[in-house]
Amino acid sequence: MRGSAINAILSTPRGLTILAVLFVPLWCATCFYVSWVSGWLVLARRFRTQSEAPGEVRTTGSILFMRFWSHYGSVVRLIGQQDAMYASVFFLFRIGHPPLRIPWDEIRFDRTRFFFRTYCVLTLGNEEKIPMRISVRMARNLGILDRYPAS
């Protein structure tokens, strides 16, 4: 019964307008909230870049976790270059997530285990210390394991 009432409202132009007016601010607020909780906004204060990374995409579409185990599933693109690691978020989630360029000397590396999986933990920013947990395979694709072989 309730579903049919919602369908009736959404089938009118006015109902679709109301949905759009409610959805867009909620989407923007959610993106900003996730960026704030995960630490992306903190990193953007110092490491924001205006453009995407040059060169070949080394890894994309993998799951990563940031501060407070904030989960980014297949929406973050990471590129490892000689000078830095570049991070950007898929266009629809870009609100509150500007592209980042983090120099390698601002990244610390460690490994950890959680529920029988091994993760590489990148601590981003010498001042900010925002953790980013990625798979060993992703770290290998980015060339991180070559930079920190003894860890």
Structure overview:
- The chain has 151 residues and is of the alpha+beta class.
- The chain has one domain (40-147): PH-domain like (Roll), CATH 2.30.29.
- 36% of the residues lie in helices and 31% in strands.
- The chain has helices at 2-10, 13-38, 40-47, 136-142, 144-147, and strands spanning 59-60, 63-66, 70-73, 76-80, 84-89, 100-103, 107-114, 117-124, 130-135.
- The mean pLDDT is 83.
How much strand content do the residues show? 25-35%
Q: How far apart, in Å, are the first and last alpha carbons?
A: 59 Å
Number of domain modules: 1
Total DSSP helices: 5
Helix content: 25-40%
Nearest-integer average pLDDT: 83
> Which class in CATH terms?
Mainly Beta
Compute the CA-based radius of gyration.
19 Å
Please name the CATH topology.
Answer: PH-domain like
CATH architecture identity: Roll
User: Sheet with the most strands?
Assistant: 4 strands, antiparallel
Topology (elements, then pairings):
Layout: H1 2-10, H2 13-38, H3 40-47, E1 59-60, E2 63-66, E3 70-73, E4 76-80, E5 84-89, E6 100-103, E7 107-114, E8 117-124, E9 130-135, H4 136-142, H5 144-147
Antiparallel strand pairs: 1-4, 2-3, 4-5, 5-6, 7-8, 8-9
Q: Characteristics of this structure?
A:
151 residues, alpha+beta, PH-domain like, four-stranded antiparallel beta sheet, three-stranded antiparallel beta sheet, 5 helices, 9 strands, 31% strand, elongated
Summarize the structure.
The protein is an alpha+beta fold and 151 residues long.
